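Narrative summary of target 7.
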Amino acid sequence: MTRPLARVGIPGKPSRQRAAKNAVTCPYCFEPVAPQRILFRCRGQAGRRQGCAPVLDKALAEYTGSTAGASLPPVFSASGRKGRAECPGCGLATGNRACPECHNPLPSAYCDSPGRIVALVGAKNAGKSTYIAVLLHELMNRVGTELDASLVACDDRTIERYKRDFARPLLEERRLLPTTTSAATGPREPLVYLLTRTRRGRFARARNDSLALVLFDTAGEDLRSREVTDLHLRYLEAADAIVFLVDPLELPGARTGVREAVPAPNGAGDDPDSEPLNVIARVTETLRQRHGTRPGEPLPVPVAVALTKIDVLRPGLLRQSALHRSRSGSGVLDLDDRDAVNEQVRALLHDWQAGQVDTYLGQQYADHALFGLSALGGVPDEDRVGAGGVRPYRAEDPLLWLLYRFGMLDGVRPGSRSGAPAEWREPGRTAFPGGVGGRPPRRKRPGGG
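Modeled conformation, tokenized:
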């Protein structure tokens, strides 16, 4: 039996998100919804079933910007304490739930498990779409096997979008993915998954812990001005974590060493709005407005900052660099390795005249970590994946760190005599002496700023 982790509120969330206990955040419009406000949708007519006839759902049509696909059986309100309710129109029971704001479906697995919305942010050339495609593939295969975890889509739209926009073009046809379209052209569908891990307790009893994971990416154009950011990144107020992807070739100090082998990104260095620090600063300003934090108060949202395309930079690193090592793949987070990679990336940022990124993150966020990864693992051949195919390198690292922060993954220190201090073994729980909100004390945080 799946035992969802307890819902844990994140300090600093807007008051309207704390209005209802155990509120569910809609993964489509990102509005917090109290359980008693969740709507049900009639199952409708199918075969011999005499349900309600389809009607135009105006709220859904307004969300999608089109009436196509918006004619559905009606929604209705009900207590639905057991996840089902009888339609007042036809009397048939239904378990199909919907958001009261946008009328998008709320998958049962998402409503019944603690949801974590991970916002993926980066400028135009950072490779967000490619990263999503590879990360999900790794979680469904190699990393999922390592963690004894399953990753299952919560709705048909997620299945369709992943296959159409990510897996088929990149992994099957080996075509590079196009840049993410701007939110100004219409709403983008989030990817909603249920991640379930089988874990063993003290007495070797297996238990299943589940976490609803929502991935939502932004287009580079949505980050060009503060006004557009405020308009199109409303979901940031609901994000439980942020992953900033930084193209190191946008950093002049890094680009100098690889200019001959790898072409610089289009417009690299020409657009100040696309510089990593400016992108991070604009998103940070939006987060501060949403969270209502006081001046000088660190934001509580965990932030992972990852240098992408690290494969083109590894040849220039010292042989003993932590970025030459692969992750151990032991099913836990190696905290010693996490520290080493964090310090290596921090040193690289300062060497590449981008130390302000690290300084700014330390000033603005209570919890941040630095990563180096490569989704493709090699230089592409024009608009196609390189001859070696997709060979990801540490693409899963940011998410594993976030799972550790969320209490879904244990952390160990292999170099210590006992493997790991007791307070590190069950992250996200009350075992942390002196921690805040179930987190370890700041002075012991691995890989943080």
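The two ends are 38 Å apart (CA to CA).
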